[in-house]
Amino acid sequence: MTHRIRPTAVLVAGLATASLALTACGSDSLSKNTSSSSSSSSSSTSVAVDPALAAKLPAKIKSAGKIVIGTDATYQPNEYLDTDGKTVIGMDVDLFDAVAAKLGVKTQWVPTGFDQIILGVTSGKYDVGVSSFTINADREKQATMVSYFTAGTQWVTQKGNPKKVDPENACGLNIAVQKATVQADVDLPKRNKACTDAGKPAIKPIVDADQAKVTSAVLTGKADAMLVDLPPAISAVETTSGKLELLGKQYDSAPYGFVLPKAETDFGQAIVGALKSMEADGSYKAILTKWKTDGGAISDFAVNPQP
After folding, report:
1. PROSITE patterns in the record, alphabetically (predicted)?
2. Of the candidates 303, 242, 293, which has an alpha carbon nearest to the alpha carbon of residue 132?
């Protein structure tokens, strides 16, 4: 994930058409990250708890009766702050709240920097990280990951692509990405190496921990384009009233994963079981449909799938 205005939940209408065919979701908002805030959600009383799955919860969570979740709440429509500036909402939030309900516990969402979430999970600060994390081998070395969705990378420029950006030849251009994302750590360096190996000017990365600032860099012309997951990309176009546009199609689609401590594979299996139950009762698809992201639905939920 590359992973923001505090608008009301802007539903990304474009996902229902082009992006659904691309099997991903995307929407970048412009609200700011407030790491000091948190929000809690209660398990739905209408959801039947699965005792067998609940038994696989770590003792710490059973005792607390809640799951503490680290998230980068700047990534609309997946996870972002509501108009009150403190309540975390979004597709990922609804999905994991529903998982927690199946397990009979509540959730507490704690906004933080994207690059701090995995460390927070491995250190015990958070029980789980839920923040549009693309599953890859490096992350699976650090943590257990449970797949639940899929999305790819999308280029975004100002409307009309005034800088004539060519994704296959971005040498010498200013390209914005969010810190610690696949786009920042893998995609852009690979493209930059191709430029310098060919004797062309290097790409000039503009890197920020806040996706809102990444988007703003393109809006203001500081950056010629940005790389971001398709869900935030489409939302960026929507929330800026078309001042931005998608360039080309998404690529390198990969699963998103919930992040758990490395040793918590039983917990991971409990989450897989909850997701399968949600798929069977229709709630998984209903949540994605609500957020216009059902093109990214998967059915092969798994603990530590092969990237």
Report:
1. PROKAR_LIPOPROTEIN
2. 293
